[in-house]
Design brief:
mainly alpha; two-stranded antiparallel sheet; globular
Length: 130
């Protein structure tokens, strides 16, 4: 049977990454709600498994950080002097880190960081206006 704390961690991961994914979806970016939630859920699950079963969280977390960097890099498209997708790549990497934070039980830090990132993303919309 799955411990209730693991279920709570997965739910928190969905909520936090959903906030970032929702913003990306509303901004009509290629990686939206589902992508961000799945990346965060995967990171949370792997962190839970790492901490609870292997007791080798630093090595597995380091692999997550590296691997998600490659996934995010795939979202970046360069065409001449025009580069698109850097913020999307950063948010993919970011929600993976949120998943790690939630997976090790740092709910408040993960929530505060998510709120700050969400505010920055929303404020970024005004950058294009001015």
């Amino acid at each position: 049977m799955v411990p209730i704390e693991h279920v709570i961690k997965l739910i928190v991961a969905v909520i936090l990454s959903g906030l970032i994914g929702y913003e990306r979806e509303k901004s009509h970016k290629p990686a939206g709600l589902r992508t961000h939630v799945i990346v965060c859920l995967g990171s949370t699950l792997l962190t839970i498994i790492s901490v609870d079963f292997f007791f080798d969280d630093p090595r597995i977390i380091a692999a997550l950080v590296t691997g998600l960097g490659f996934l995010g890099a795939g979202a970046i498209i360069a065409s001449g002097r025009d580069i698109k997708g850097i913020t999307t790549a950063a948010t993919i990497w970011f929600v993976a880190m949120i998943g790690i934070g939630v997976g090790i039980g740092w709910y408040q830090l993960s929530a505060m960081t998510t709120i700050i990132a969400f505010i920055l993303l929303v404020l970024g919309r005004f950058e294009k206006i001015s």
